[in-house]
Amino acid sequence: MGRLPLFPEQASTFAPDVDHLLFFLVAVAAFFTLAIFAAIFYFAIRYRRRSAGELPREQHGGLALEILWTVIPFGLTMVMFTWGADIYFRESRPPDNALQVYVVAKQWMWKLQHMEGKREINELHIPLGRAVKLTMTSEDVIHSFFVPAFRTKQDVVPGKYSTTWFKPTKAGKYHLFCAEYCGTRHSGMTGWIYVMEPRDYANWMRGGEPSESLADDGARLFKELACANCHKADNTGRCPSLVGVYGSTVKLTTGGTVTADEAYIRESILQPNAKIVAGYAPAMPTFQGLVTEEGVLQLVEYIKSLGGKPAAAEGAH
Ligand code: CUA
Fold this sequence. Notes:
By secondary structure, the chain is α+β, with helices and mostly antiparallel strands. It has helices at 14-46, 63-92, 198-206, 214-224, 262-270, 293-305, and strands at 99-106, 109-114, 119-121, 123-127, 132-138, 143-147, 152-156, 162-166, 172-178, 191-196, 249-251, 257-259. The protein folds into 3 domains: 15-91, Orthogonal Bundle (Helix Hairpins), CATH 1.10.287; 99-206, Immunoglobulin-like (Sandwich), CATH 2.60.40; 214-305, Cytochrome Bc1 Complex, Chain D, domain 2. Strands 3-2-1-5-8 form a 5-stranded mixed beta sheet, with helices on one face. The structure holds dinuclear copper ion (CUA).
């Protein structure tokens, strides 16, 4: 089946599940298509007009028949619904121990950052058998991260974080596509996912130029942007301390609360006045245009590294 371009290799834990559901849908559709065609032919012949003045016998409905053709499609669609929902929910909930990779899409390339600081462009190296969680955003328009062999496709939207995850089951090299029309060179916005044996992956990670971790990059940016002038760790500054803020519940001036997840931290950097922490004045200037999306992700990682429990519901869908 791998040789047919319509059926790419199955290289993630989701691939067989998605294929089984697809085959079920195709089988149901094919069965009813054939059944309807056969019935049309049969009835056209069986109930043809045999003499010029012939009148058909009047029909006044058939309760049994109506119940039958209501219950059977209902049952079938409920099977499709629960089966599809089950896969959807599993695909939208990355496991806690997943490897984190950050993705920034732009016209027309994929920029990827590993937690350890390694960066890649249009290539992603990951270890075999380990769940990988992607936190993604776009610098310009909507793109879509599509790896057919993993049966993974997730829109990458400017202004927010979207997440997806997969667990590769086969070492190899797999196509990455952009699956959302994003401009002139959309068709060239492709790349490769390299699934490596864990030992090869460790070697790859060690190789090349030594790199700082994402959190270290974030710490440097935090200093460069002079964030520490207001956000003092001991909470004596004009702005709240960021120690332990990640994953916590933050009280706002509006009386409401918000969970300090990645999306909240991003918003607080780019639109500081959107949600003001209770007890503080709206003193922070916006950093929109001053920090790239990659820089924001580094700051998020730095703030995470200052402690705090992981947010229960990460990412927005
Ligand atoms: Cu990016 Cu299409």
